[in-house]
Write a structure and sequence with these properties.
By secondary structure, the chain is mostly helical. It has one domain (3-174): Orthogonal Bundle (Arp2/3 complex 21 kDa subunit ARPC3). Helix content is 68%, strand content 2%. A two-stranded antiparallel sheet has the order 1-2. The longest helix has 30 residues, at 107-136. The termini are close together.
Length: 187
């Protein structure tokens, strides 16, 4: 892997970490700005490098660096919100994959790609939340409660961020910032 690509992956991993410190506490799943880095990593870096940036973020947090919204360490896999972190990896991949398959990247295509990433993150996050609350915390949530606390309450803000990131990525890809129109960093 080229040094430039490793640097891009590290930058987006760092942006995800910073987004974790900007949070609004709500029951079960705090609202953070981490999803911004996920959207932009997939849109700008492509599927492999975007997913790698999120894998780097999760790996650093699991080795003990307190990067996650509620700390860090290997024990974090037992937290009800760990599924959202797994979702970040797959979400960045999904977003990048969709953008890569489209020959051009207008706002609409980026919005579709980022919305697909959002659904990926929340699907994995809600499944993990349900399982962790039932089997680890032993305070089970019903499926309705899981959808309410794991999706319906936190998702409105992330939908707004989805559209903002789509506009931002569209402008970055179309402007003279080192990325030719419709191209991303090659992984």
């Amino acid at each position: 892997m080229k040094t430039k690509n490793m640097t891009y992956a590290a930058i987006f991993a760092a942006l995800t970490a910073v987004g974790g410190f900007i949070k609004i506490p709500i029951p079960y799943v705090p609202f953070t700005l981490q999803i911004v880095a996920v959207f932009l990593a997939g849109s700008l870096l492509g599927p492999r490098l975007g997913a790698l940036s999120q894998l780097l973020y999760v790996s650093i947090g699991l080795i003990g660096v307190p990067l996650f919204a509620e700390g860090g360490g290997l024990g974090y896999v037992f937290k009800p919100t760990f599924g959202y972190l797994i979702g970040f990896i797959l979400g960045a991949y999904v977003s990048g994959f969709i953008v890569e398959k489209l020959k051009n990247v207008p706002f609409k295509a980026l919005a579709i790609a980022n919305f697909a990433a959002l659904l990926t993150v929340y699907t994995i996050g809600c499944v993990w939340l349900y399982g962790a609350m039932k089997f680890v915390v032993e305070k089970p949530l019903t499926i309705e409660q899981t959808v309410l606390f794991g999706f319906l309450i936190p998702v409105p803000g992330d939908i707004v961020l989805c559209f903002i990131c789509s506009i931002l990525a569209s402008r970055i890809l179309d402007r003279s910032t080192g990325f030719p129109a419709g191209k991303r960093v090659a992984a």
